[in-house]
Each structure stands twice: as structure tokens, then as C-alpha cells.
Design a protein that fits this description.
The complex is a heterodimer.
Chain A: H1 2-8, H2 12-21, H3 24-28, E1 32-37, H4 41-51, E2 57-62, E3 67-69, H5 74-78, E4 88-90, H6 92-96, E5 101-103, E6 107-111, E7 116-119, E8 124-126, E9 129-132, E10 136-138, H7 148-151, H8 162-173, E11 179-184, H9 194-209, E12 214-219, H10 227-237, E13 242-245, H11 247-250, E14 253-257, E15 262-265, E16 269-271, E17 274-277, E18 281-283, H12 285-289, E19 299-300, E20 314-316, E21 321-322, H13 330-348, E22 358-367, E23 370-381, E24 384-392, H14 399-421
Parallel strand pairs in A: 1-2, 1-9, 2-5, 9-20, 11-12, 11-17, 12-13, 19-21
Antiparallel strand pairs in A: 3-4, 6-7, 7-8, 10-18, 14-15, 15-16, 22-23, 23-24
Helix pairs in contact in A: 4-13, 4-14, 9-10
Chain B: H1 20-32, H2 49-73, H3 94-106, H4 112-120, H5 123-136
Chain lengths: ~425, ~140
């Protein structure tokens, strides 16, 4: 096992460099094996921070795909403001520079007793600790008629990839004067301000290319994150273009009619030129299969070590977990992943984990040169994670401040994805 | 600057060239810089060679704390200084970093992101991360 992970997956150079950098004492110790399953933001960050520390750990990252495209900033791609390539990242640096064995396969099962992971290819990996970053899955049957086939006509575009490209294509070929219907799921879901950012940036695209088009947001909720900031911007930038209908107006989205391309609520049926249906969500497939999710559909974890409270020795980070006040976002996943990596390093070297610094920041675009941001610090408290300090953009701040936030956001994306993927 | 066991695991992500030599450099800097708000580092400023050894152990311990906090910084700031549109935090002195963080905390410098960060850190933690970041400038960046 030891030999194939390193050799076959080309991490030899990086591993040699890292070994040379480590203190002599570490080299003589047996390395603990940590397997990270899922190469999104949470998984890649855990792997990188574990591998670049001085704890003697052999890190394997299991991820079926060779490339990862970020959902964050994909609304800029939908509006034609960023290329899809600029959202896409590989695992080469993690492999070469950090000596992480990246295995392009998917985990089919975990045996927590024997501490063995079975991969879809039939190969097996043994571990001392395993970290899952399974992301989200969609709830089945939440909207009648919205199945895998319907997603090819009415994309969700809530996992970046082919779905995002499909939605972009549909928006481009939509006739001027058409209605773009955006269906927003109930809480909790990945990236709370993102549906409204999507409405804003698609509106900026329409303004340039299809000025008679309309956007209808059918929400499962009656309020939303940053509502005052969004509604102020919709008025300023796109007057009359975006209509937001909360659940109490429509009774909620009940079904879709793919052939007629219409969205059916309890009260009314809306005909769409392009429909973007974001379904209700739950923790990713492997978490469900392994019994790591509770009745809510999400995974309860210890707020210091991110160890599952349902399955000891399995750690979980990112969108799949119940993180108290922390939203499901890439930034949260990155922050939790660092905390988890530090905690694992402590556990594996026999010391006790220290209280983590948890943080979330969102840059949210209202228009190409108008962005708002928020920043919240969190602390573990009584078995969960609670807000410590929060700070958010205000409706009346200057347009110069908003322009600066939009520029900062661009710079942030580069730094952040480097922090994750190396 | 919590007293920790020497040799405790240090985990820092975005930079890796972290060796005893650098710890020594950081220790010297921590030891001989005039402490401002950092009351407890006064203890280190007494000078002379026996203190150096103590300072080295101490810096290694507090660098562990500083490194973990710097990992929070690394979500938005490059630790090799190549930032675009975001202020760089490398190449600055410990005092300057400390003063900046305290100014953000008081709202004297505008940035609600930095204010939330600064409010979440104690004086001691600000001192630890400032010391850690100031030591980074002597190193080659991660790439």
C-alpha cells in the first residue's frame, strides 16, 4: 500500500522535499495514515494543512475527478464576466509540492472497525484517521417531476461543472423578453447569499444583452441573507427587472413541468424561458450511506475536532456538517478544515487540541463593480459553534467602498484557491 | 504567549520552510524588539545570552499559536506577499502589524472584515501572530 500510493501517484518529489524539511525526530517515527475523502475546498484544505505541517503524517486524498471547479464565483461566469477555466483547479501542486497521494477514485465504503476504506475500483486503503468532505446532495422528490432528466432541461447549477455551463448556454440563447425563473430552496443550503447574487449578476448580463428580459425569484423562504443590500441594489441597478416572491405569496414551488418549461407553485404556474431550479439539500452521499447524518440530513460533529458524534474516528468538514451558526460556504469549509487538520495533528501526536479560530467571509456581487462583504468569527460553545463577532456591509456605504470590495473579491479568489489547492 | 511544551507540533499551511534556524531568528526578534502592548514579552527583553535559549523555546511555543492564527490570515492574504487588490501582510515589522490589528479592532482603520478578525483575537494572540508574520519576511515564499 505504502509503495503504490506514493509511486503510482507521483508524489515522490514532494514527499522527499517534505521529509528533508521535517525535524529529525519526526523522520524516525512511524507515520500516521490519514485519508481524506473528497477533493473540494474542505477536503483539499485538510490534506494540504496536514501534509505541510511537521506532524509525521502520510496523507492520501481520494477524489474521483481530476479537476475541481468552484461554485463560488461561478455566478460571474454565468454573467460572462469570468471564464470557466479561471474557476477550475487541479491537484498537481498538492501532489508534487506537498507529497499528498491523490487517488482519482471514489470511496464506496468505510469499515470503521478495521479502519479500511474500499474504493470503487476495488482497491483498499487503510487509515488511522479518516476525514470526509462529502459536500452536498440534493433531496429526492422535494419538487415533483424534478429528477435527473429534468436537471438537463432545468439545471440546478449548484455544483459547478456541466450544469453551470448548461445554464450559461441557456441564458445566452434565451430570447430578449423571456423570463428567467430562479427557484431558491429552503434553509439550510450551500452559500446563503448566492441565489440572490445569481439573480443580480444575471440581471447585469440581461441589461447588456437582453434588456427586456425579466427575472423571477421563487423563494421557499420569506426573508434572506443580505436582503436589504440586495433589494437596494436591484432598485438602483436593475429597476423593474427582478421580482422576488417569498413562499407566502406562492405557497412554495411544488412541481415542475419540464415539457412546458414551467414551474408550478401552490397558487400559480409560471412559464419560464430559462428555469434554474436549486433543490433542497442534504449531506453528500457517502455521509448518508455511512450513517453519519442525523434526521436533519446533515452530520453532527464535535466543534473542536470535527469528529463525527455518530462514528468516532471519522472526521467531517464542510457543507455536510451541522456547524451551528456557520453557514455552508467554501470559506467556512476552509476554516473548519484548518481547525480539523490542527486537531488531527494534536490527536496523532498525543496532545490535546486547542480551541480553533473559526471564520467566514463572503464577498457578494450586486453588479460587476458593486460588491458587499461580511465577516464573522465563531467559537465552539456548548457542543456547537456560535457567532463571536459579526460585521457586514451597510446599505448606505459609498460606491467607492463597494467598488473596492469588488476588486478585493477578485484578489481574494486567487489567494483563497491557492490556500486550498496550493 | 501561553507556556507550551517545547517541540509541540507546529502546523502551518502556506509556508513550509520552517526550521530551527528560523525559529531562532524569530526568537531574537521577539527578544530584542521593544515590546509595546505586549506586557509579558518584557520578560524576554532582559538581554544576555542565557536568555536567548529561553527565548528560542518560548518563540517556538508561541509560534505554534501564531502559526495557527496565521492560517486564518492565509485564507485572504498570501504569505509570500504576492497579493493583488488585498493588502500584503508580509515584509512588515511586528510592531506595525500589532498596531494595525489594534487599530482595526478599535475601528480606527476601516475594514469590517479586519475588524471582525481583530475583535476575535486577544492581545496575546495578536502579539503571537504579529511575531509569526514578521518572521515570515526572512523566508522564501511557498513558491
Amino acid at each position: 500500500m505504502k509503495s503504490w500510493t506514493r509511486r503510482e501517484f507521483g508524489g515522490l518529489t514532494g514527499a522527499a522535499v517534505l521529509t528533508a524539511l521535517r525535524p529529525r525526530k519526526a523522520r524516525s517515527q512511524a507515520k500516521a495514515k490519514v485519508v481524506v475523502i473528497g477533493g473540494g475546498v474542505g477536503g483539499a484544505t485538510v490534506a494540504r494543512y496536514l501534509a505541510s505541517g511537521t506532524a509525521p503524517v502520510e496523507v492520501t486524498l481520494v477524489e474521483p475527478s481530476g479537476l475541481y471547479s468552484t461554485c463560488f464565483f461561478s455566478n460571474l461566469y454565468l454573467a460572462g464576466l469570468r471564464s470557466f477555466e479561471s474557476l477550475t483547479h487541479g491537484y498537481e501542486t498538492l501532489r508534487r509540492q506537498y507529497g499528498i497521494a491523490v487517488v482519482h477514485d471514489s470511496a464506496a465504503m468505510i469499515d470503521p472497525e478495521a479502519k479500511i476504506i474500499g474504493l470503487s475500483s476495488g482497491a483498499k486503503l487503510s487509515y488511522d484517521r479518516v476525514v470526509l468532505a462529502p459536500g452536498i446532495a440534493f433531496q429526492d422528490g422535494a419538487i415533483d417531476g424534478y429528477d435527473a432528466a429534468a436537471m438537463q432541461i432545468m439545471p440546478h447549477a449548484w455544483k459547478a461543472g456541466a450544469q453551470t455551463k448548461l445554464l450559461r448556454k441557456q441564458l445566452q440563447s434565451m430570447e430578449d423578453g423571456g423570463v428567467f425563473v430562479l427557484v431558491v430552496p429552503p434553509d439550510p443550503f450551500r452559500c446563503p447569499p448566492a441565489p440572490y447574487e445569481r439573480a443580480s449578476l444575471v440581471a447585469s448580463y440581461f441589461q447588456r444583452y437582453k434588456p427586456r428580459a425579466k427575472i423571477l425569484v421563487l423563494d421557499a423562504k420569506s426573508t434572506f441573507t443580505g436582503q436589504d443590500l440586495f433589494q437596494d441594489a436591484w432598485q438602483r441597478h436593475y429597476s423593474g427587472m427582478i421580482e422576488w416572491l417569498p413562499a407566502e405569496f406562492t405557497g412554495g414551488v411544488k412541481a415542475v413541468d419540464v415539457k412546458a418549461r414551467s414551474v408550478i407553485t401552490a397558487e400559480e404556474t409560471f412559464k419560464a424561458a430559462v428555469a434554474n431550479v436549486i433543490p433542497a439539500q442534504k449531506a453528500g452521499y457517502l455521509a448518508q450511506q455511512m450513517g453519519l447524518a442525523d434526521r436533519s440530513g446533515w452530520c453532527p460533529v464535535d466543534p473542536v475536532t470535527f469528529e463525527s458524534t455518530l462514528q468516532p474516528s471519522i472526521h467531517i468538514v464542510g457543507d455536510a456538517i451541522i456547524a451551528g451558526d456557520m453557514p455552508k460556504s467554501a470559506f467556512s469549509a476552509n476554516s473548519q478544515a484548518k481547525a480539523c487538520a490542527f486537531a488531527l495533528a494534536s490527536i496523532l501526536t498525543g496532545s490535546s487540541p486547542s480551541t480553533p479560530h473559526l471564520f467566514n467571509t463572503c464577498y457578494t456581487f450586486l453588479a460587476p463593480d458593486d460588491a458587499w462583504s461580511n465577516a464573522i468569527s465563531y467559537k465552539p460553545l456548548a457542543g456547537t459553534i456560535r457567532t463571536a463577532h459579526a460585521s457586514i456591509s451597510k446599505v448606505d456605504e459609498s460606491s467607492e467602498m463597494r467598488r473596492r470590495a469588488a476588486r478585493e473579491a477578485e484578489g481574494w479568489y486567487d489567494v483563497f484557491t491557492r490556500d486550498v489547492f496550493g | 504567549m501561553i507556556a507550551r511544551r517545547p517541540g509541540v507540533t507546529v502546523l502551518v499551511g502556506a509556508w513550509r520552510g520552517w526550521r530551527s534556524k528560523c525559529k531562532m531568528l524569530a526568537a531574537c526578534r521577539a527578544g530584542f524588539r521593544t515590546p509595546q502592548i505586549l506586557g509579558r514579552s518584557l520578560v524576554l527583553a532582559i538581554a544576555a545570552s542565557p536568555i536567548l535559549l529561553a527565548a528560542s523555546v518560548h518563540a517556538a511555543a508561541s509560534n505554534d499559536q501564531g502559526g495557527k492564527i496565521a492560517a486564518v490570515c492565509a485564507s485572504c492574504h498570501r504569505l509570500d506577499g504576492g497579493d493583488r487588490f488585498i493588502p500584503s501582510i508580509v515584509g512588515l515589522g511586528e510592531d506595525q502589524l500589532t498596531r494595525s490589528m489594534l487599530a482595526y479592532r478599535l475601528g480606527e482603520r476601516p475594514s469590517h472584515i479586519m475588524q471582525a478578525i481583530a475583535l476575535s483575537l486577544s492581545d496575546e494572540e495578536i502579539a503571537a501572530v504579529a511575531r509569526f508574520l514578521a518572521a515570515q519576511r526572512k523566508k522564501v515564499g511557498p513558491r
